User: Fold this.
Amino acid sequence: MKPAGIHFKKLILVCTNERENGDECCAARASVALHAKVKAAIKVVDPSVRVSRTGCLGNCATGTTVVIMPDNIWLGDVQESDIPEIVRMALA
Ligand code: FES
Assistant:
């Protein structure tokens, strides 16, 4: 193991986990599109903040789940209308 040699100021994780058996999942709440929109919004204001898709974050019943690290901010039921607030929190 060795250091990756990259460093982002913050990391925003957007759950895009999909379950094909009909169980609750963020992908069923349009989280793939949400991820793309959050990524585009962040890229404009601060490319040192990384926005990545992730698997299940354990908050399936109240997804879409978004996490902002290293601030340890966990958000549920995230909608497209929340993107400006997510950007604000990521820049704080
Ligand atoms: S499927 Fe998104 S938190 Fe579990």
